[in-house]
Structures are given as structure tokens and as C-alpha cells.
Amino acid sequence: MPILTSPFASLDLLRQPEQPNEPLKAFDAADDYLLGQLQADGLPAEARVLIINDSFGALAASLAPHARVSSWGDSHLAHLALVKNLARNQLPADRVHFIPASEPVQGLFDRVLIRVPKTLALLEEQLIGLHGHLAPGAQVVAGAMLKHLPRAAGDLLQKYIGPVQASLAQKKARLLMATPAERPAPRSPYPTRYRLDQPALELVNHANLFCREGLDIGTRAFLPHLPEGLGEARVADLGCGNGVLGIACALANPQAQLTLVDESYMAVRSARENWQAALGERPVTIRADDGLAEQPSQSLDLVLCNPPFHQQQVVGDFLAWRMFQQAREALVAGGELWIVGNRHLGYHVKLKRLFSRVEQMAATPKFVILRAIR
Predict the structure, then answer these.
(1) Residue 167: how many CB atoms within 10 A of its CB?
(2) What count of Cα atoms within 13 Å lies in the side-chain half-sphere of residue 225?
(3) Residues 145-148: contacts with CB within 8 Å, 24+ apart?
(4) Could you name the CATH architecture of 192-373?
């Protein structure tokens, strides 16, 4: 197991979700560089440190014994990783305060370490949220691997924090050091909204939402083929995003009991706001979770899913395969998983390994809609 060794700690760290023979580490050279820079700059006693977008808890766990640490991020899986990695390294859970990205930070921070996220809108919203939360003499340092560091990240730091100096590259990682300067209180451009004609909805999308400016083409292909006549069926929208599939299903099936789940806190907030706008006080369960990991076995009749094909910058079908397995476990005998997927991903082959029958319900030149029966 790879060990992260820094001036602050030596840690045995796991990624989330776990998979056998995990080929990837729970940290990278950018984490190492950020910790080294923090040590070089100096960490005052009792400093308040804010870690932003700490993928698997590497930064927060390293600093937990040395400072008052808060971790601010949009991934429930990252939160799970932090909790597990603190315990794995015999560090008390209360040494790090986790804040979902859908909620504001509180108080003043002396040091801010940022992992530049894949979605620059998320970074922009977080930098806007830092306004008024930097203590006198605060230092703000962002880091990423070179291949994942767009020029726009430095522009955003310059715009919302202050002058930026880029470090030399080190092990293919780079840091951006921003010196806080007086800035007028910024006005956030988030959330964004767009309208659908069928069903007639206006959808709110917070900063980290996939396809924030308009309906993604996979969901657009899926919507006309959602099942109807479900009665009081128990239905989950797995990886719900802004909730559009679950909301459309609920509108077409007035007695159905809906559960909407996503690992993004901003997605969950978007889905809650969109559900209330479309369906008022109709009962629903909307939660941030590791897919259906916490869903009781055989408690659902139908699962709808537009599965992701990446986790952060890592592309692959591991998450989709895991979601299919979770759906099978959560469905009753005869229950159904409906998915939309790119043709070339060959999801029907994987589904046939888990389900008794798989049928193609519709297709476009790019997508297929599949029904898998447990």
C-alpha cells in the first residue's frame, strides 16, 4: 500500500470507492507539493486551515494533528474517504470538520489549500465563497497536476483572491500562490437555470452540476422513454444530478414513491430545489450517498440511471459497473433497472452478467436505452 510521507505525517491512505487490486493511489504529487509548500511557508500554532476539494482526505489527514482543519468539498465519496482514512491512521474523527460545498464556510482561515477541481465553475463558486473568510496575513495556495491545470484556474484566483505566482513544476505538479488583496464583494453567477418543454420545467443547477447550461444529450434521449403506469412503485433515480429523471418519472406516475441519490452535494441541493418547484410538498427522499450502498436490499421496484464514465479525471466504467451491482442488490425479484448509455460502451454485455434479462427499449444514433430485469 503506497504511503504518503510529508513533513506533517506518514499516512496509509485508501481511495473511495474501494476496488480490488486498486491501480491508483489516494494521493499524488500535487498533494505532496502543497504540503511541502505549507511547511516551507510556516504553519502557525493553532492556525485555522481550510482544505478545498481534498479528493481522499490526504491533505486534511496529514494536517489534522497540527492545526484546526476544515475540509470543504462537493464529493460524498471524498467525505467517506476522509472519515475512513482518519480512522485508518488512528486519528480522531473530530480533528477535521467537513463542510459540503453546498454550504458556506464559517469564520476566518489562516491558510487555504486548494486542489483545482475538474469543473472550473466549482472552483469559481468556492473562491467567491472565500470572500470575507481570509484572516489577516492569510495564504492561499492551489495545486494540481500539470495535465489538469488550465490557465483559467490562475485567472480565477487573480480575479477573486489577488495576485498569483506560479511555482516551478515538480514531479509534473504545479502550485498557484495567490496573495489576498482587497476585492469588492463578488456576485456569484451560480446557480444557473434552463427550461425544458417536455416536461415543462425550469431546472436549477448549482456550480458543480454536469451539463449545467442545458440538458445533457443522454438524458434528452432517455426522457421520452421513461416507464409509465407504475402505480405505487418504489423508484430510485441513481446519480440524479439536478433530479430531472426522477422528477419527470414522478410527474408521469403520481403515486410512485421516489428516491433521488447523488454523491455530489450540489447535485442533491439542485434536485431538492427542483423537486419542490415542480412537485411542492409531495413526499420524496433526496440524499447524498455512495450510490445505493445504504439502500436496503430488495427495497426498490425500479431504478433509473444515466451512469457516469469518470471519477474526477479518471475515465472508466468502474463506477457504472458498481452502480449496476448496487441496483441489482436494491431491486426486488422482477424489479427493473433502466439506463441510458453510449452505444460504444457496451453496457448490455455487463448487464447480462447481473440480470436475468436485458432488453433494448429505444435507440438513437449515439445512445441506447436498456431495461434489465432482476
Answers:
(1) 14
(2) 20
(3) 145/28, 145/29, 145/30, 145/172, 145/173, 146/172, 146/173, 146/174, 147/172, 148/116, 148/118, 148/313
(4) 3-Layer(aba) Sandwich (3.40)
Q: Which fold has domain 3-178?
A: Rossmann fold (3.40.50)
Grid cell 464514465 is found at 309
- The sign one gets for the Cα dihedral 117, 122, 125, 130 is negative
**Domain boundaries along the sequence of the chain:** 3-178, 192-373
- What are the two backbone dihedrals, phi and then psi, of residue 338, each rounded to the nearest 5 degrees? -110, 130
Among 148, 169, 173, 175, which Cα is nearest to 28's? 173
Q: What cell numbers appear for 360 in the block?
A: 433494448
Per the document, the length of the chain is 374
10 Å CB burial of residue 373 (0-12, 13-18, 19+) is middle
The pLDDT tens digits along the chain (374 residues) read 679 999 999 999 999 888 777 778 999 999 999 999 999 999 998 999 999 999 999 999 999 999 999 999 999 999 999 999 999 999 999 999 999 999 999 999 999 999 999 999 999 999 999 999 999 999 999 999 999 999 999 999 999 999 999 999 999 999 999 999 999 999 999 999 999 998 999 999 999 998 888 999 999 999 999 999 999 999 999 999 999 999 999 999 999 999 999 999 999 999 999 999 999 999 999 999 999 999 999 999 999 999 986 445 444 577 888 999 999 999 999 999 999 999 888 898 889 999 999 999 999 999 999 999 99
CB 56 within 8 A of CB 16: yes
Question: Hey, do 3-178 and 192-373 end up sharing a CATH topology, with the first three levels equal?
Answer: yes
Q: Any idea which residue has 406516475 for its cell?
A: 253
Please give the grid coordinates belonging to residue 82: 476522509
Single pTM value for the model: 0.94
DSSP string, 117-183: PS-HHHHHHHHHHTTT-EEEEEEEEEEEEGGG--HHHHHHHHHHT--EEEPPPBTTEEEEEE-----
- The answer to whether 146 and 172 are in contact (CB under 8 A) is yes
